[in-house]
Amino acid sequence: MGAIMSAARDYGLDEDYEWPRPPAGGWTADDLDELPNLPPHTELIDGSLVFVSPQTRFHSRAMLLFETSLRQQVPDGWDAIREMTVKLNKRNRPEPDVLVVREDADTGPGQTWFRPEDVLVAVEVVSDDSEERDREVKPRKYAAVGIPHYWRVEQNDGLPVVYVYELDPMTKAYVPMGIFHNRLKLTVPFPVDIDLTAVDRRR
């Protein structure tokens, strides 16, 4: 009981909060919009709700760096946005930290998710509690639905290190394209140049 009360406090919930009980067969992607009082940034993985740990300073700064830099650099017809879910299928609706999506996929201010076909790049910033999901589970699922590019951001001495992957359409698996320290410079899927040492820079 003490662990449950502590978890509720971590998510800013009342200590008598009743955690949702899954139906037979697990939750579906559509349930995520209907369940009341879920902690922020709850994901659905294989029909199970995944609650994230409180965000670290590095995680927040890294997301801001990538969202801001990508919004400045995406070509016409594309946009960058953070912390929006992608409805991969009935039982999976993860929330990448940053996405590059089609501009015309915007359905209005109440939108809560994107389709896989709207996504060009999915970016995950690894946290202590998300290592297995970000390194193994999510890339496998993103590749299976055809998301062309996946970037995994790890922390090393306070700076981002970016692992870049590109989808092999024949195998529906990601191929590693490089590991980037200090500076992320790419020509695919569009010209990208991000100073990774600027993660804590305010201007």
TrEMBL record:
Q: What Pfam families does this protein map onto?
A: Uma2 (PF05685)
This chain's source organism reads: Streptomyces griseoflavus Tu4000
Name the chain's protein.
Putative restriction endonuclease domain-containing protein
Putative restriction endonuclease domain boundaries: 30-196
